[in-house]
Amino acid sequence: MKERIISVDIFRGLTIALMILVNTPGTWEHVYPPLRHAEWHGYTPTDLVFPFFLFIVGTSIVFAYRNKEPNAATYRKISVRTLKLIGLGLFLGAFTISFPFFRDFSEIRFPGVLQRIGVVFFFAAILFLNANWKALLGICITILVGYWIWLGFVPFDGAAPTFDRAPNNWANYIDLQVFGSHMYKDDYDPEGLLSTLPSIASSLLGIFTGLVLISKRPRKEVIMLMLGIFMLVLGYLWDTAFPINKALWTSSFVLVTAGWANIVLALIYYLTDVKGLQFGSIFKYTGANAITVYFLSSFITKLFYSIEVADGMSLHGWLYQNIYVQSFLSGEMSSLLYGLTVTGFYLLLAWYMYRKKIFIKV
């Protein structure tokens, strides 16, 4: 196995752990507010998780492809990995435990987390191989500004467009026209088609941080910290004209989330790579098999929700009701403890895989 960057693996693994935690509460009726997504505009800590992963995808691209040539063999590897990610995402959306084990076509959701990761990885990797940092910066700015202009200023059937959850929102409208009923909600999808454009910018911003990490510059943690603060300030200023919104993946959302990602990664980098502290090793193990752990957690959670046990209750519901629901615990605490247990299981699984030198590349 090649030598890995400790802080990058820890950051990636921590992000996957948070993904699992926020996706597997005991019950969605009792969830602490920080572990919920924002209703529309604004953001919560939970809304940072997915953009953090796309950010670190960009950072990882730098380490994986800095010595690669932009040739047919490299493009083939990138394409194969992209198709694997999209395929795994579609499999999760289509699978059911009932024979013949796949949903009716009309019920399948086409967009999804793994699908977006695949698409973002593809374009970010191709751009990294063929453009220098100045060109990448220009592309990133073009995406963010162009997306703002499209959603905020291009007339919609002769009327003004909106950033609200409404039929005259360009992102929602295009998703509905392209995907129809194959979406997360009836009127929009948080991993929709148009909002994938700015999510590529999230990964490009991660590439810039990766370039800092492989550079010969001293005090890299300070550079990342300053980049993070700059992006936060710029994102909050833009929020006044283009609201921070995860469902739309607005340009202000891209900057704010990348700002926080830089700050968090700078802290982890300082503790591990600069000071040499043994910090967050359990997340390092998870980061080494990030996609595998995420896929398994999503697949097994789906099984737990689908398998019926006593009185028609799902296996998930039975475990939660009989083990975690206690009179001395609030509903939110019971729900959180269930999620922490599930997350802990996958962290231990990742530790075991790391110890046995099992590294599954997707």
From TrEMBL:
InterPro entries: HGSNAT_cat (IPR012429). Pfam families: HGSNAT_cat. Coiled coil: none annotated. Residues 4-217 form the Heparan-alpha-glucosaminide N-acetyltransferase catalytic domain. Keywords: Membrane, Transmembrane, Transmembrane helix. It comes from the Bacteria. The keyword Transmembrane applies. The chain crosses the membrane at residues 10-28, 48-65, 85-102, 108-129, 136-156, 193-215, 222-238, 250-270, 282-305, 336-354. The keyword Membrane applies. This is Membrane protein. The lineage of its organism: Bacteria, Pseudomonadati, Bacteroidota, Flavobacteriia, Flavobacteriales.
